[in-house]
Specification:
binds fe (ii) ion, four-stranded antiparallel sheet, binds 2-oxoglutaric acid, 7 helices, alpha+beta, 14 strands, eight-stranded mixed sheet, IPNS-like_sf, single chain, globular
Amino acid sequence: MELPVSVISLEDTPQCASSLLEAAKTLGFVYITVQDSVMPASRIDRMWELSKQFFSSPSEQKEKCVISKDNTGWMMRFETLDPKNQRQPDFKEAFNLGEFKDGKAQQPLPASFADNETELNEFQDLCHDLCLKLLRLFAIALNIDPAEGGAEWFTPRHCSPSGTTLRFLYYPTVAVGEYSPVLDIRAGAHSDYGSITLLFQRPSEPGLEIHHPITKSWHAVPVLPSAILVNIGDLLSYWTAGLLQSTVHRVVFPEPTNPEDAPQDRYSIAYFCHPVNETPLTPIPSEVVRSMGERGANATSGSEGGVLTAEGHLKEKLRATYGWKGREKDGT
Ligand SMILES: O=C(O)CCC(=O)C(=O)O
Ligand SMILES: [Fe+2]
């Protein structure tokens, strides 16, 4: 059954802030619509063009930027998002673009992106600004203590260096018979690791499913053209002592309408917004969060007895899902 995900028009108002918080507390996923000046449709269209340009480029070019231990680069059939339950890796290709510095990528760019560094950087900036707007609204709804930064509390905690990643995803058509719709999956069940994720999807390319936190069953997510899907990641959930839901989701092979038809390609783009690496995940100074009791960041210690940092959490997750097979940044 398809899940009705709330659609919120993004505005700088307390009402919008409380609607966002409500969606984040219940489902952990919400569609937002934004003014074209905030996220121009032409920019998103351009990213789809660049995505196709990259994924259709020769594999020798892609291999020059294979995934490295800093989680940047290209991978194919490499990640296993649900290592406990999957028998083989996700049926997908992905390219992870890490943070830029002074407008320049800090990783080798594939030949197919050689002329696009500026527009990739500008798109990342648009995504980052949008995430900061969302985080400001969460800060307002959580009523973060004004003396501690109030609405701006998240802002200085979301700059560089961080694990923030713009990820291009491609789930290729797989012929019927070459995969098991029961055992195999395009992206295994997982929750996202950072603060918030923006997900861009294309009409007629479904497949995303959400594990409903209350009914504990899987639901397909309808693709809404011109809306951006936002979901809460583990860190924001931890930071809010579990008030905000980091909901489990996956990407399945959609059932073909006609049994002879193979499931079609799916492209998606995810922007994973992470806090600064060294950020200690100590409780958010908010009465709402304090009232959640001793959970998440409200608990006295993180893993291994110390305070969990944003980077520590990300590294733990990547170790499990990459298993680790990637190369060091110096190419070893
Ligand atoms: O491709 C999608 O729709 C979702 C991808 C995803 O959930 C992820 O990479 O974390
Ligand atoms: Fe995800």
